[in-house]
Design brief:
Blueprint (H helix, E strand, L loop, with lengths): L6 H14 L7 H8 L3 H13 L3 E4 L4 E4 L1 H12 L3 H16 L2 E8 L2 E8 L14 E3 L4 H7 L4 H7 L15 H14 L2 E4 L6 E10 L2 E11 L5 H25 L9
Antiparallel strand pairs: 1-2, 3-4, 3-8, 4-5, 6-7, 7-8
Helix pairs in contact: 1-3, 5-9
Length: 260
Amino acid sequence: MAAPEHRSTIRVLEILSLLARNRNGYSLSEISRELDAPKSSLFPIIHTMEDRNFIQYHPETLRYTIGIQSYLTGSAYVSGCSVYDLLQQEMNTIVKESGETCHLGILVDDCVLYLAKKEAVSPIMLKSHVAQRLPAYCTGIGKALLSGCSEEELDRLYPSCLQAFTSNTITSLEDLKKELCQVRATGFAYENAELTEGICCIAVPLHYHSKVITALSICYPQFRNSELLLENMKRLLARVQKEIEHYFEKFQITDSSCLF
């Protein structure tokens, strides 16, 4: 039988998780309301956490924020991980929350090179696997990567017609350029059964100082496609994108060779 959870320990973790979500912090009353816990029981815990510098009190705003000791503790964890490890953790989050397959890839010439793949519990049949190269112009992750290319670079990558894999494949470079303009404007790239019949994809580029370093995608069966599904996936990818680009800033990831 599992040991019972320790209530005070749970409160400490809940407080840290709450404060980590808002850089402006919370007052004691707000923490009490958010955690649905009486101030009288929270105050001694918060006082101890403040005394040990895990949280910080700001008398000018009457709010508490994350303290330096929490930062140092978190930094010790991060320093033991490569950025690639952190990327894999974020991919696991995507799979867990979306229930679909997630890819990480980089652009090599005119192809996507898949660096990592995390499959859902019920995986769909995909042509991709780690270390495989697939055409970038007909995959969501590939379009996300190509969105970082100039027109001159695209002309050099695709000097001739684009091969059709399905009836939905883009075969015109001009059409591809128009779609990449949309990717840059919206931040999201899409594939609608362009490489494999029945498979769709949504992807985001991952930047360092406006340069596309790598990209993440979620692949899912076409029959599950809906406006609600896409909105949920966009929110999930946007959140993870922000986290990963923060890693890039922290570790100064200037190109894909720095991921490992």
